[in-house]
Amino acid sequence: MMSNVTLGKYIPNNTFFHRLDPRCKLLLLFIFMITIFINIGMIGYITLGLVMIVCFILSKISLFTVIKSLKPMWFMMVFILVINLIVVKTGTPWHIGKITIYSNAIFNTLKIAYRLVLLISTSTIFTATTKPLDITIAIEDLFAFLKPIVNVHILSMMISIALRFIPTILDETNRIMKAQASRGVDFVHGKLKEKAKSITSLIIPLFVSAFARSDELANAMEARSYNPYAKRSRYRKLKWRIKDSIILILSIILLAGFITLAVTHLANNWNGFIFDWIRGWFK
Amino acid sequence: MSAIKFENVNFGYHNQNLIIEDLNLEIKRGKYTVLLGHNGSGKSTIAKLAIGLLECKKGSIFVDDILLNEENLNKIRSKVAIVFQNPDNQFIGATVRDDMAFGLENKCVDTNLMDGIIEEYASKVNMQKFLDAEPTNLSGGQKQRVAIAGVLAMQPDILILDEATSMLDPVGKKEIFEVIKDLKQKRSDMTILSITHNIDEALFADEIIILNNGKVVKVGNPSEILYDNELLTKNALEAPFIVQLEESLNKAGIKVKQTLDVKELVKQL
Question: Which among A97, A191, A193, A273 is most buried, taking Cβ atoms within 10 Å?
């Protein structure tokens, strides 16, 4: 069950994306996320989609992995579609039996779905090509300017430990589930109330064990002279190369282009043209 | 000369009764000492007190003749290293290499020197081939060897093993015993304190301390302690297998001299 999780999993390889500096990748992730949420119109989204496809090819992530990482959003998509069908009453009405649905409800859902696919794909590329430890180092480096306000090192150490303990906690969850199942707890069948009760028998021992683990880990860290406020040297150092700068500059130019598209409403003009063309097909 | 010294130490968790009362204990420098006691006898508490993870309510603790207090804590921690029971809960890095580097980072060791130190100490515990392995891909014994290498890389004067073999299978236990034996031979200046209820760990000790209910019951060398059945039984312990075998052989009329070495026993037979 636990090994099926693909979102957030590092896939070892030596591709162009794997070799990029994690700080550069983190900045690219932010730039892409900002771009996705700007109203960049059809042309913008199609361009972004093409960029994403190129990124997938360069990072050599299989299509299967991408589809698997999109799996958790199906429920959300159905929910958004239902809400849109109820709320949106504009556009061309389509009659399916006694029900009338409007074209804008479908287009809105598709637009949100497309944005979500782009968002999850970006995160998948980032996490699949960057080691968890490198992510934390990148966070520590990029947010170093916040040091006078927040101890960034503590935050990055927390993230690093959380990432390190994910497999351990998942193992523990499996163990507890098997132990409870052997004592008659049914996690699959039964009514919602019964299921909630059986989940409690998993959650409570899991929390107890997680607290015990954290206590022991804190002792082990302290015994190895760890002091988050003291000066430390660093074993892993990141290397910023020319290609990182080039990729970052290109992405910033792309972002600037999209922002111009959105601000000048050019995107909407093109949208109108494309929507008219699509509607023409449906008539 | 003592490496660790407890003088009239009292300790109890929260407002509970004292679990260690008026404890006087001395761990000799450069020796391999085994602290034996049943579960709940206060062994692990002693380890945590010695490294300042717990604070005693009364009395004084000295490490390398330095009084353990808030002021000297960092100084003492640079001299003492501890390996805990559960190998999973002391693995901090994402790989063996990163985990071993953790202590070095805390000691502000130059980054350029780290790789050399990591490789040197990983080879001491035969883990040099696993430097880039993730903790989930290692066996319990291997994880514990990494933990030992990680603390050895910090070049401590005193190594405390707090039930370091209790969660390991026989192969893992054997691996750790071999590491301890090797350390004893190659680092004769290092003090090793093994806290355990596994009596087999005491076979090659220089000194054994029996602990019961937070009090030292007896201190002696292996031949004094491990052949004293009455003492062991009173303290919920059992004689090691080799001692039991020698006694059984003698009872059966096959006379053998007391030896705690299997090879020596085989020779006699």
Answer: A273
| Same domain, yes or no: A212 and A113 | no
Between the alpha carbon of residue B166 and those of residues A175, B86, B87, B144, B171, the distances in Å are: 20, 8, 10, 11, 12
- Asked if B194 and B165 count as a contact pair (C-beta separation under 8 A), the reply is no
ipTM of the complex in this document: 0.84
**For each of chain B's 269 residues, which pLDDT tens digit applies?**
789 999 999 998 876 788 888 899 999 999 999 999 888 888 889 999 999 999 988 999 999 999 999 899 988 988 999 999 888 888 888 889 999 999 999 999 999 999 999 999 898 888 889 998 887 788 888 888 899 889 989 989 999 999 888 877 888 788 888 888 888 888 888 999 999 888 888 888 999 999 988 889 999 999 899 999 899 999 888 888 888 888 889 888 888 888 888 888 888 88
- Residues in B whose CB is inside 8 Å of some CB of A read 48, 51, 53, 74, 77-78, 80-82, 84, 86, 88-95, 97-98, 101-111, 114, 135-136, 150-151, 154
Instruction: Pick the last residue of a domain from A228, A250, A271.
Output: A228
Distance CA B140, CA B88 (A): 8
Is residue A161 in a domain? yes
CB B181 within 8 A of CB B261: no
For residues B162 and B178, what is the distance between their CA atoms, to the nearest angstrom? Answer: 17
Nearest-CB residue to A221 (from B78, B92, B135) = B92
CB A223 to CB B82 under 8 A?
Answer: yes
Residue A132 C-alpha, separation from nearest chain B C-alpha, in angstroms:
8
Residue type, B71: E
In the DSSP assignment, the letter for residue B17 is: P
Chain B CB contacts of A233 under 8 Å are 104-105, 107-111, 114
Within a domain: B67: yes
Query: pTM score > 0.90 for this model?
Result: no
- Domain range holding B188? 2-221
Which of A222, A233, A237 is the closest to B53 by Cβ? Answer: A222
Amino acid symbol at B41 = S
Same domain flag for A182 and A208: yes
With an 8 Å Cβ cutoff, are B102 and A131 in contact?
no
- Placement of tokens 């059986």 in the chain: A198
- Taking CB atoms and an 8 Å cutoff, what residues of chain B touch A168? 88, 135-136
**A27: domain range?**
2-131+239-282
Residue B192 forms part of a structural domain: yes
CB contact under 8 A, A216 and B81: no
B53 to chain A nearest CA, in Å?
Answer: 7
SS (H, E, C) B191-238: EEEEEECCHHHHCCCCEEEEEECCEEEEEECHHHHCCCHHHHHHCCCC
